[in-house]
Amino acid sequence: MEKYLLLILFAVSATLNAQPENPGPYFAGWTSVTLQREGRTLNCRIYYPALSEGSETAIDNLHGPYPVVAFGHGFLMQTSYYLSTFRHLATHGYVVIAPQFPDTQHELLAYDLNFCVSYIKDMNTNPAHRFYNNIDTGAVGVSGHSMGGGASLIAAVHDSTILVAAPFAAAETTTPVIPRMYLIKGAVYLISAQNDGITPVFSTQLPMYQNALPVKALPVLRGANHIKFIDVSAFDWTDPGGYMSRTEQLRLARRLLTSVFGLFLKKDTSYFKYAFGNIIGSDTSVMMTRELKPLKPLDFNLENTPDTLYTSSVTLKWHSTHSLNQYDTVKYTVVIAEDSLFNNPVEATGLISDTAAVVQRSSGTYFWKVRAQTSPTAYTYSSNSGKIIIASPSFAQEDISVVNNLYLECYPNPSAGNINIRCSAPDNDVPVKLSVFDLLGREVVLLHSSYLTSGYYETEFDPGKINAPSGIYFVRLSCGKNAISQKIVLAR
Predict the structure, then answer these.
(1) Among candidates 193, 191, 205, which has minimal Cα distance to 239?
(2) Class for the domain spanning 397-490
(3) Does residue 31 contact residue 119 with C-beta atoms inside 8 Å?
(4) What is the pLDDT at residue 16?
């Protein structure tokens, strides 16, 4: 009962705080840890989704696993200057680790951030740790401010598994990151300030943006400055420009950061409008530059996997999918091969929008899967594959049967539509019954129940009248104690 109550409260909270700049549905818990990396001491703050607010509180293990975010602080800054951002991300379902850097060697700071991510991933496999089985190890993002923002970009250069780098007012690094931006494989989202007097947009973030690969964006906050990305005002004198208040600058920064992480780390396309789409496009407080390429469609499955069929015409179905770029259009192609490894695949269809296709194959055994694509280089194959055995119609039934002077003929068989039935019985006073049964022995339709005249009697079985689905049926002709049956196959 307690678990269900928590789930209800979670759903209500999520609805009330739907805007990404508002607190999320979780409580924020926090802890500290000291890590050692090659003689470097990293005193780290860790924030996480919790069942109650506070230090060392229990993690919310009902809604995990959670993505990981590593955050680097700015020059002469402390991790304590960014607690509101850490807490905000934790309430939205992220585990945030923020090391206090021991020096200002930018390349080493990047490795520090990657080491912190590895630590969180390791704790996911530690049964004694609160993060055990609560970490989504495939969903990692990095962020930071100023010097730490530049270090986060280098971290993404060194680790191709990082899905998104989203720093605040990132600074150029001593070993320049600007010429290395094209090496970042994940999304680049450079949250910047128009009146930044320390790392100006045009000399710093814009070249970073220009050298990065799509998908990328450069949202510039109008009237914002470099130093109001932190919680405290003690350093405001270092960058006095700008007119945006700290409260408003942090609100916008959290909206953007939460949205881009929600899109790429949680694969939640409801955030697209805030990160790239119409909401940020119409927000006059942000100047937005972006470039989106077609993205790979998300994982999807086949809906049906037919096995043995007695027809050369096969209907195949699969579930729809989409990409994280809502401007993308997904097209599908059915791929068929004669081996399960698809060593010699054949595209059975062209690019189609539907999630079903009818393919024609001759007798044999085939394997099939579906490729979804947004472009020739951005595609995903279905998570599962199917097997089809197409048998020759002659294996399905004998077209003509004669038993005890009873005659029964069904054609065409198999059929996608009506089946003609021709039969005869001995000329006597015994009534004749002609019916169709399903595989469970249930009579689905009575075609004739009376005496037959001499010669042949012809009728038609129309499966459409009774909405008979595809499958195997039996036509039965009975006359007194004698009866004859014949298998028919509907392939509608």
Answers:
(1) 193
(2) mainly beta
(3) no
(4) 41
DSSP 3-state assignment of 236?
Answer: helix
Tokens at 251, concatenated: 């609100």
Interhelix angle 246-264/83-91, rounded to 10 degrees, is 40
Residue whose structure tokens are 């730490």: 148
pLDDT in tens, 237-248: 999 999 999 999
Rounded Cα–Cα distance for residues 259 and 338 (Å) = 45
346-368 as b/e, with b when 16 or more CB fall inside 10 Å? eebbeeeeebebebebeeeebbb
Quote the tokens at residue 119. Answer: 């630590």
What's at 484, amino acid-wise? I
Integer Cα distance of 225 and 79 in angstroms: 19
Helix, coil or strand: residue 366: strand
Sheet holding 457-461, edge to edge: 400-403, 406-411, 419-424, 457-461
Flag whether pLDDT at 17 surpasses 60.
no
**Class of 2-291 per CATH?**
alpha beta
| Helix/strand/coil percent split, the chain, to 5 | 25, 35, 40
pLDDT tens digits, residue range 35-58?
999 999 999 999 999 999 999 999
pLDDT for residue 171: 98
Look-up: residue for tokens 């394997």?
367
Side-chain-side CA neighbours of 136 within 13 Å: the count stands at 22
Between strands 187-189 and 216-221, the pairing is: parallel
Say if CB 69 and CB 142 are below 8 A apart: yes
Tokens of 114: 């990657």
Amino acid at 482: N
Q: pLDDT grade, residue 277 (50/70/90)?
A: very high
pLDDT at 306: 67
Q: At residue 102, what are phi and psi to the nearest 5 degrees?
A: -80, -15
In the chain, what is the straight-line distance between the N-terminal and C-terminal CA atoms, in Å? 48
Q: Mention the CATH class of domain 308-390.
A: mainly beta
pLDDT (mean) for 402-420: 83
CA nearest to 172, candidates 147, 195, 197: 147
Can you give the residue ranges of every domain in the chain?
A: 2-291, 308-390, 397-490
Query: Who's near 153: CB < 8 A, 6+ residues apart?
Result: 110, 142, 165, 167, 170, 173, 177, 181, 184, 188, 208
CB-based contacts of 189, cutoff 8 Å, min separation 6: 164, 165, 166, 216, 217, 219, 256, 260, 275
Show the tokens assigned to 285: 């407080």
**Residue-wise DSSP of 268-299:** -GGGHHHHTSHHHHT-TTEEEEEE----PPPP
Enumerate residues 6+ apart whose C-beta is below 8 A from 35. 41, 42, 44, 99, 115, 116, 119
Domains 2-291 and 308-390 share a fold: no
